[in-house]
Write a structure and sequence with these properties.
The protein is about 30% helix and about 25% strand. It contains 7 helices and 12 strands. The strands form 2 sheets. The protein has a 10-stranded mixed beta sheet, with helices on both faces. A two-stranded antiparallel ribbon has the order 6-9. Helix 2 packs across helix 3.
């Protein structure tokens, strides 16, 4: 920590213990802590599990590299949430980003429930927090919402996000168009947002693609850190599952398009969190 003890933002990658069906180049499944790159005052809290695939590792890595590409190199703190001895005080941070996982919130894994408790304390303390996919769901669960399998089934590929009226007055979403493309891949979703939450966006298949709780906590089901090749990679990796569900992976992959508006959200959050800290 620097002498002036500036607070840092954190990217929390809520990686779980569920074994992924994605193989590494060596044909082995393995857990890896995400890369240490990101915005100033940023920290990556990687909730890595025992056997996490390289493709899932890349979720937080993509977020960190995207933020780093937007500005100068910044200091990073990296913590493995699955290791109880590694602790991070939320009041040492300017903000938190919680990224995706192959795990399911409904499994109630010990590491996940412990992380949910940490997130709950952080947002109640006023620490800015931005949850992505699993992080979105875990934030909702931590605050009393309901997470379960989406009755509409798996959402995969480039989807269109439809903003609700409150989004146009939101610090992060106000500058976005009413309808924009984003990348998504998930089976579970937020069926009931936490009490007091404001739902900001939906897709054709998911009624809660984004919400804000209070003034400093957001969750988005889509992946703002994904580029088109990342999304196609997930479609190809889930090809057998998609076929078993009566869907065509090739058609989904070909329909993947750029999502520049969605990708801006990470930087907007970091700037907003840093602004709150500076004030």
């Amino acid at each position: 920590m620097k002498a002036d003890r500036e607070k840092r933002a954190m990217i929390l990658t809520a990686e779980g213990k569920r074994e992924s069906d994605i193989k590494t180049a060596e044909g082995e499944k393995q857990a890896r802590i995400l890369s240490a790159e990101g915005e100033k005052h940023a920290a990556i809290l990687a909730a890595e599990a025992e056997r996490q695939a390289m493709m899932l590792r890349a979720e937080g890595e993509r977020a960190a590299k995207y933020l780093a590409a937007q500005g100068e190199a910044r200091a990073i703190q990296k913590v493995n949430a699955a290791i109880k001895s590694q602790k991070t005080r939320s009041d040492d941070l300017a903000g938190v980003i919680v990224s995706g996982s192959a795990a399911f919130v409904t499994d109630r894994a010990e590491w996940s429930e412990r992380t949910a408790g940490w997130m709950r304390e952080a947002v109640h303390a006023g620490t800015p927090l931005f949850g992505i996919c699993y992080g979105h769901q875990l934030l909702a669960h931590a605050l009393g919402g309901q997470v379960d399998y989406n009755p509409a089934g798996r959402e995969s590929g480039t989807v269109f996000i439809d903003l609700h009226p409150p989004a146009f007055e939101d610090p992060l979403f106000a500058a976005l168009p009413a309808l924009f493309a984003a990348h998504a891949t998930h089976l579970q979703t937020v069926l009931r947002p936490p009490e007091g939450a404001t739902v900001l966006a939906r897709s054709e298949q998911d009624g809660c693609h984004a919400f804000r709780w209070g003034e400093r906590a957001w969750g988005v089901q889509f992946h703002p850190e994904f580029a088109t090749h990342h999304m196609r990679g997930y479609v190809h990796a889930r090809a057998e599952h998609l076929r078993s569900e009566g869907r065509c992976p090739g058609t989904i992959a070909r329909s993947v398009t750029a999502a520049p508006q969605a990708r801006k959200l990470l930087r907007r959050f970091v700037r907003h969190a840093r602004g709150l800290h500076a004030s």
